[in-house]
Write a structure and sequence with these properties.
The complex is a heterodimer.
Chain A (H helix, E strand, L loop, with lengths): L6 E3 L3 H8 L12 H17 L9 E7 L7 E6 L2 E7 H4 L6 H16 L14 H15 L4 H18 L25 H12 L12
Parallel strand pairs in A: 1-2, 2-4
Antiparallel strand pairs in A: 3-4
Helix pairs in contact in A: 2-4, 4-5, 4-6, 5-7, 6-7
Chain B lengths: L1 H16 L1 E6 L2 E5 L10 E9 L4 E11 L2 E12 L9 E10 L4 E7 L3 E7 L14 E9 L2 E8 L4 E10 L4 E10 L9 E8 L11 E5 L5 E5 L2 H4 L1
Parallel strand pairs in B: 5-7, 12-14
Antiparallel strand pairs in B: 1-5, 2-3, 3-6, 4-5, 7-8, 9-10, 10-13, 11-12, 14-15
Classes of the chains: A alpha/beta, B mainly beta.
Chain lengths: 213, 230
């Protein structure tokens, strides 16, 4: 297994200017030094705890693009090189904290390692629902997160998803009652995604709001 | 009681004069827009002509069986004692196929029309922050010059760019991509018009489809008659 991890903090003035022109929200874009260290430490623990256990021959790099205001994250794979990118708008979101960042990183890793259903028959990436399930089923537990921390992180992360996707905020006391007639290979509803995280944590079956046996 | 029986008899007699039959619609063309990926709700467009006004649109069913998508477009044919004037009535059905796993599918409509449909794997695994404009009309202003008309629901969003994707055959997909300017989005209803140039020269039909992706995850579709526009 070859795992090489890099944390790149992109802070060039040129990148900052280009990104700010497309800013979604400038109220609290930059992390202060202690917040940045907290995020770096979280990523460091994630690297040392989760990545070495991976039965993979991929090179995995985690990039924190702190000055990009986009509230998002993604995983990109080019041959054996895998990059997980978390942008500044996500890192500096008021709901972001170490447990939420761990869940987000587990979700992105879940696209690579979560297994079927895949987005494409010949592709590499697990669907969003499957990546959610992977993230809470095993990955997050490996990081020593307890149930209270998990529930807080799951609600926080899906609430951020809801803001970005302009959907209603999800709740822990309700479930998405939708029964999918076909497998959802795209984005399940935000409530369905929270239900999936909870199902994964409790090692229950994947919810019917997106998954078909 | 007697009055009710007479009323029922009259009703039955009148109903017997108008028979409605569900039949397969006479489909003529299947448009398959390009550019769908596994995050999209896929739509295709079926057109045809009813032979007379006694036909009307009915239901559309979609069944995905492995890599085959079977679409059945039905119509209602009314047999009335009144004459049905001999007149072609064009119809258009926008068929929601829904979300599909990336791959190549054969799509068959009424066992008559067949096309290939390719769904690409989504290029990004990020949160779904894609937003298209709310378009409900396309108007031609000049040769190749069109205006997308619709609504801007808040001043926190604005048009970023308009991408145009051709399927090289009969359809131009128009993607009016919006960008979010701020996180505060007060509800407003502002009419908008976005000019766009559409080049149909690489298409192989005189009746192309303009397929505009819209904010609600669906699309606005209009079929042109380029010969009629001359």
């Amino acid at each position: 297994m070859i795992v090489s991890v890099l944390i790149l903090i992109l802070s060039s003035i040129g990148i900052q200017a280009a990104c700010l022109s497309e800013s979604l929200s400038l109220e609290k874009l930059e992390l202060n030094a202690s917040e940045m260290k907290l995020m770096e430490d979280t990523v460091g623990r994630f690297e040392s705890t989760v990545l070495p256990k991976l039965p993979s021959d991929h090179d995995i790099m985690i990039r924190l693009e702190t000055l990009n205001p986009r509230v998002n994250a993604e995983i990109v794979k080019e041959n054996t090189l895998v990059s997980i990118v978390v942008w500044g708008g996500m890192l500096s979101h008021p709901k972001m904290n170490p447990a939420t960042l761990n869940l987000l990183l587990c979700h992105e890793l879940g696209h690579l390692l979560g297994g079927p259903p895949l987005k494409s028959r010949t592709g590499w990436s697990s669907t969003e629902g499957q990546s959610d399930y992977y993230s809470s089923y095993g990955c997050l537990k490996d990081l020593g997160v307890n149930e209270e921390q998990f529930l807080g992180a799951a609600l926080a992360l899906t609430s951020i998803y809801a803001e970005v996707a302009r959907q209603s905020a999800p709740r822990l006391d309700v479930c998405d009652q939708t029964v999918a007639t076909r497998m959802n290979y795209g984005y399940p509803s935000i409530q369905c995604r929270l239900d999936t995280l909870v199902a994964g944590w409790n090692e229950l079956a994947r919810p019917k709001c997106w998954f078909i046996e | 009681m007697k009055k009710q029986m007479i009323f029922a008899a009259i009703l039955l007699a009148s109903m017997s004069q108008v028979k409605a039959e569900v039949t397969l619609a006479p489909v003529k063309h299947l448009y398959v827009p390009s550019g769908f990926d596994s995050n999209d709700s896929v739509e295709v467009v079926v057109t045809g002509n009813f032979p007379n006004p006694c036909y009307s649109r009915n239901t559309v069913s979609v069944e995905v069986k492995g890599d085959q998508i079977e679409v059945e477009v039905s119509a209602i044919r009314r047999d009335t004692k009144a004459a049905c004037p001999m007149m072609l009535v064009p119809f258009k059905e926008v068929v929601s196929v829904g979300n599909l796993q990336g791959g190549t599918y054969d799509i068959v409509v009424n066992d008559k029309l067949t096309e290939s449909l390719t769904i690409s794997e989504s290029t990004s695994n990020s949160i779904d922050d894609h937003l298209y404009a709310a378009i409900d009309q396309v108007e031609q202003r000049g040769a190749n010059e069109y205006v997308l008309q619709g609504w801007r629901y808040s001043n926190c969003i604005d048009l970023d760019r308009v991408d145009v994707v051709s399927n090289g055959k009969d359809t131009l997909s128009v993607l009016p991509v919006m960008k979010q300017l701020s996180s505060f989005c007060p509800m407003k209803m502002m009419p908008v018009a976005y000019a766009v140039k559409l080049d149909f020269s690489n298409l192989k039909t005189k009746e192309p489809l303009i397929h505009v992706r819209t904010m609600d995850g669906k699309s606005y579709n209009t079929v042109l008659n380029l010969e009629g526009l001359k």
